[in-house]
Design a protein that fits this description.
Length: 216
């Protein structure tokens, strides 16, 4: 992920001792978890793209071979054309299973993101119970209140949830796509992740800055 590298671990060396109790501790832990899950997602996205590209190359190769078979059949004097061979069918199935495994792991990542969002909502509910609808008067870290963390957590989860749906669609369609142009569209969508624009990464960075994981 651009501008973000390496897992973030919450330790006594990267947090203020006065700010790591109660809600502040939980929010800071959640921020680190968001970072690590997004790194995990980016690695899965790269792995999935490599598999998807291999599937596309296999499909295009199959189509080319089938076209050659058809041409040979039309020139043949035989009364019945031979059946087209299932070129690389087993290998194609294996690659589809690999892509399915990647998407399954992405599902797990998004479920963990949803748990973080639910956790953040719980913190917000607790703050309202303790301090009323307006929440605490003093921010837990620099300037944000608890509600802002909840809202941004929802924004992050929604983006990755929508991107996961796109990945699942590509998984279902990729191996059955006949045209090279549509294959390239699927590959481009997988690689560039339209539901996770740069603003989403900036949202994460702002959370890390606010919670002290990034220096101001």
């Amino acid at each position: 992920m651009d501008g973000v590298s390496g897992d973030i671990m919450v330790t006594s060396t990267n947090r203020k001792c006065s700010a790591v109790t109660g809600s502040a501790r939980k929010i800071k832990d959640n921020a680190a978890d968001w970072h690590n899950l997004m790194l995990r997602w980016e690695k899965l996205n790269e792995d999935g793209f490599n598999v998807a590209a291999y599937i596309v190359n296999m499909r295009l190769s199959q189509n080319s071979q089938l076209q050659l078979v058809d041409q040979s059949s039309s020139l043949s004097s035989a009364s019945a054309a031979p059946a087209a061979p299932a070129v690389g069918a087993a290998e194609l199935q294996d690659e589809c299973c690999k892509l399915q495994d990647v998407v399954d792991k992405m599902v797990t990542v998004v479920k963990k993101m949803e748990q973080l969002m639910t956790s953040q909502r719980g913190i917000q509910d607790l703050e309202e119970f303790q301090f009323g609808p307006e929440g605490r008067k003093c921010p837990l870290f620099h300037t944000w209140n608890t509600k802002q963390f909840k809202l941004l957590s929802g924004v992050l989860w929604e983006a990755f949830s929508q991107e996961l749906k796109l990945k699942q669609t590509i998984l279902q369609e990729l191996a059955h796509t006949e045209t090279s142009d549509l294959c390239m569209v699927y590959l481009s969508c997988w690689l560039h992740q339209p539901f996770i624009p740069p603003q989403i990464r900036l949202t994460l960075e702002s959370v890390l800055l606010e919670t002290g994981h990034r220096p101001l």
